[in-house]
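Reply to dn_fold:

You asked what the input looked like. This is it:
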Amino acid sequence: MSTSAVIVCAGNSTRMGGINKILLPLGNRLVIGVTMQAFQACESISEIIIVARDSDIPEIIKEAENAGITKLKECTTGGNTRQESVINGIKKISKDSQLVAVHDGARPLIKPEHIEKAIKDAKVFGGATLGVPVKDTIKVVDDGIITDTPPRKSLYITQTPQIFKRNLYFEGIDFALEHGLDFTDDCQLVEAIGGKVYMTTGDYTNIKITTPEDIKIAETLLKMRYEK
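and this is what came back:
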């Protein structure tokens, strides 16, 4: 099954003080360049669609050229919400793509083997997302008061990519649009129509760069990877 990767990086970087995290240096590349290289190296990925702010697209295209990215099909502009941005990207995938992998552009340390692993699970279950078990005890809090302690063994930190069979994902999008729903997580689109999403275990290095200290952590993790 051919898989299209939709890499979303159209956020406003509020928690980075307005600095666009995907264009920050990471190793000898930019963050978005490292992200694209992981999908470039993944055999099952047939094409890459980037969703970004219009003003960032020229620099992303330049970085793709410098990083040797040959699978980049198109860059398109994001919407007002993450869901709108993903839909804009979905509109650009090839008609013969059978699976769609949605990934956060600010998760540059995703490993190609984990992308492949999630694709394999999505083929079986219809949908799959990378994730890792939580390490800490989680509390449910209402107005500052703890109201519940869910069992840790059933809790996972959800990551990306989140991968779905094309028809199933399109059905989820149609349902959300018809009912005026706006989700921040792509799995919710499929969950809303009763679809199954498998939790594919990845690793804890697949972090999302959100705040300034995250880029320093990513630099350390990337250096450790190269030293192995």
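The CA atoms of residues 43 and 116 lie 8 Å apart.
Hope that clears it up.
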